[in-house]
Amino acid sequence: MSHQHVHEHNHTLTSLNSIFIVCIVINLLFVVIEAGAGFIFNSLGLLSDAGHNLSDVFSLLLSLFAFRMSKHRSTEHFTYGYKKSTVLVSLLNAIILLIAVGAIIIESIYKLKTPEHVSGAAVSWTAGIGIIVNGVTAWLLMKNQKHDLNVRGAFLHMAMDTLVSVGVVISGIIIMLTGFVLIDTFISLAIALLILVSTWKLLKESLFLSLDAVPESINLQEVRKHIAEVPGVESFHHFHVWAMSTTENAATIHIVLKDLTQMETVKHAVKEELCEHGIQHSTVECESPGSHCNDSCCCR
Q: Which ranges does the record mark as transmembrane (predicted)?
C-alpha cells in the first residue's frame, strides 16, 4: 500500500469522524425540538418522525463507533483487528430501523381508531425545520456514501428523512386547509413503508456480508475472467472472496502456473488484478503444472 493511499485513507477516516459528530449533534437537537412539538401539538406524524430521527442518531453513533474500532490495530486474538465491526453495525442499524417501523405501524393503527386534533401549522413548521436538518446531514454524508456501506446506509436514511419531512409538511398544510386530521396518521404509515423499503437493501447486504458473501461491489465473473487472462496462469481454483469490513475486501486463490520460474511475477500480477477490482488483501498460493492440491477444503 502506497504512502499516498495510506494518507488518503487516514484523512478520509478523520474527515468522516468529524462529519458524523456534526451530524449527530444537529440531529439530536432536532429530535428534542420535534418530539417536544409532537407532544405539545399532539401530532403522531411529528412523534413518529422524531422517533425515527432518534434511531438515526443512534445509528450514526454506532457507525462512528465502528469506524473508530476499525482503526484499532490487530491483536493476537483479533488478527484482522476490529474491521468486521463495521459490517455488524450495518446489520444492527438495519434491525433498529425495522423495529422503528413496527412501532410506527402499531401507533398508527391505534390513532386510526382514536383520531385526535392536530395543529397543522405546528406540524408544517416543525417538519420544515426537519427538511433543512436532514437535507444538510444527507449532503454532508453524500461524498463518501458510494464507498462504504455504513455511510451509504446513513446517507439513505437522511435522504429518505428529508422526503418524509416534505410529506409531513404537506400533511400539515392539508390539515390547515381541510381539517382532515387523519392525514397525519396516513403520512405516518407512508413513513413506515418508505423506511421499510429503504432498509431492505441495507439489511440484505449487511446480512450477506456478515455471512462472508461476495460484496455486491465485486463482479466475480469479471474478476475470474481477468485472472484467467494474466500471462503465466494456466488455471486457478480455491478462489474465495469476502468482506473484512464495509470498505475492505479479502481473497484467497490457488494459481496453477505454466512455468514455476515465473511464480513471483505471476503472483504480483494476480494481486494487482485483484486490487484493481476492489480486493485489497489477498493470499495467492502458486502450484506447479500437473500438481494436485492437498488442501482438504479446496474446491476446484
A: 20-44, 50-67, 87-110, 122-142, 154-180
274 burial (CB, 10 Å; 0-12 / 13-18 / 19+) is buried
User: Would you say residue 141 has pLDDT above 50?
Assistant: yes
Yes or no: say if 202 and 153 are a contact pair by the CB < 8 Å rule. Answer: yes
CA angle 13, 251, 93 (to 5 degrees): 45
From the list 149, 144, 170, the residue with the least C-alpha distance to 12 is 144
Residue 36 CA to residue 262 CA, distance in Å, equals: 70
Distance CA 119, CA 181 (A): 9
Complete DSSP assignment for 223-280: HHHHHHTSTTEEEEEEEEEEESSSS-EEEEEEEEES-GGGHHHHHHHHHHHHHHTT--
- CA pair distance 48, 186, nearest whole angstrom: 12
Query: pLDDT digits over 230-253, tens only?
Result: 999 999 999 999 999 888 899 999
From the number of C-beta atoms within 10 Å of its C-beta (0-12, 13-18, 19+), residue 11 rates as: exposed
Q: Is the pLDDT of residue 18 over 50?
A: yes
Q: Considering the entire predicted model, what is its pTM?
A: 0.72
